[in-house]
Structure formats: structure tokens, C-alpha cells
Sequence to fold (70 residues):
Amino acid sequence: MKKEQIRIETEFIKLDSLLKFAGVAETGGQAKELVAGGLVTVNGEICTMRGKKIRSGDKVGVDEIEIEVV
Fold:
């Protein structure tokens, strides 16, 4: 599993924006499809809310990639 750390300067980032920012999804539409398809986990649980607020300390997983927000 590939692990990445993404630093945010704001209180939170929305899940679909994080996927684009991290380079997991090239477009907002692709991010939406990943989330809607149940392919994204937040802190180990499947998340289908693309607007979910991701905060520092959260871990987002897609395929073999784990993104930790710091």
C-alpha cells in the first residue's frame, strides 16, 4: 500500500476536493464516481458522501493508496 501525507492549511477539505488535490482523481467527475461507487474509505469505513469534511488526522483510502491529512 502506498502511503501519502497531504498537508492542509484550512480546518477541513471536502472529500472530492482532496481526491483531486492528491492526484487520485483527475477531475471532479472522476472523484464523484469513485465516491459514489463505494471505492473510497474514510478512517477505514466506506464513505459515499463526496462533500464529507476531511480534517487533520483523517485517513482516506482508495485502491492501494492511503492518504493521511495533516
